[in-house]
Amino acid sequence: MTPIGTFYGDAVYKYDAPRQGRLFAGHPGRIELNAGQNFETALRDLEGFERIWVIFQFHENEGWRPTTRPPVPPKGKDRVGTFASRSPYRPNPIGLSCVRLLKVEGLTLFVDEADLLNGTPVLDIKPYIPMADAFPDAKAGWVEEQAGEPWTIEATEEFAAQNLWIAEHSDFDLESFARVQLSRGNFTKDLFDSSRRRLTLDENAKTGVLAYRTFRIHFSYDEPTRRISLQRIASGYTPEELKPSAEDKYGDKPLHREFLASR
Fold first, then answer.
1. Which of 59, 205, 212, 248 has the most Cβ atoms closer than 10 angstroms to its Cβ?
2. What is the pLDDT confidence band of residue 106, given thresholds at 50, 70 and 90?
3. Could you give the CA distance from residue 60 to residue 95 in angstroms, rounded to a whole number?
4. Of the candidates 35, 46, 30, 26, which has an alpha carbon nearest to the alpha carbon of residue 4?
5. Given this model, what pLDDT does residue 26 score?
6. Domain that residue 85 falls in
7. Is residue 102 domain-shared with residue 157, that is, in the same domain?
8. Number of independent structural domains in the chain
């Protein structure tokens, strides 16, 4: 197969992307189709559809796994079979996503509620047709046995102000990332499981730290009410690492210096 175009969006790393795009509005992007293949004609009449199916390639995956651990596993199970899951690690690295179509301009499709990474090769596009594609009463197997309800995510004024500053000075949206990563789970057993290597937890203090690139999101949580409060944002660099003479591997230390100076 040959890709017909490429998806571009803000999700660069796998942990940036929501697990299911429609559950997290505000993850826009665009699909740019290849020129010189008469795709302009192929796009005719598509703009009247509210949603489209995007068939794409998991281009950053290597190999596959016969089982997977779902973000919210069913009761009594730790892993499920790959063919009974939406895991990206498949024998053929093909993905399927139903995104909201905003508009079509030339060879560019503007979409929202996307769960694709920046640079994802797009293999095909098809319209979503509710009467043919929607089966709201269909059984959903082990998904119906998932334990736990979504956690409520709140943000303090300090966190909101810090997140706004970072958003105005970069392409990062730490609040959106935190909501994607922390909104679902079966209390601390599943929400804060040991495989989440970018997250540390103090179960005695009921606080945690979630890493987003070189920033750190500090939060508190309450299990009985299933509420998480995003408290503040901190730099992941030490004062020594932020000295002008220090190496800047990711090219973001000036942003961190300005961020700390603005507080």
1. 212
2. very high
3. 12
4. 35
5. 54
6. 5-144
7. no
8. 2
Examine the pLDDT at 21 and tell me if it is beyond 60.
no
* CB neighbours of residue 253 within 10 Å: 19
| Single-letter residue type at 106 | G
pLDDT tens per residue, range 156-167: 999 999 999 998
Q: Evaluate whether 123 touches 94 at the Cβ level (below 8 Å).
A: yes
CA pair distance 115, 88, nearest whole angstrom: 11
Q: Are 21 and 97 in contact (CB under 8 A)?
A: yes
Nearest to 4 by CA among 120, 97, 89, 111: 120
For residues 161 and 157, what is the distance between their CA atoms, to the nearest angstrom? Answer: 6
Phi-psi region of 248 (alpha: psi -120 to 50; beta: other; left: phi over 0): beta
Of 123, 144, 165, which one is at a domain's C-terminal end?
144
pLDDT at residue number 250: 86
Q: For tokens 């750190």, what's the residue?
A: 216
What pTM value is reported for the model?
0.63
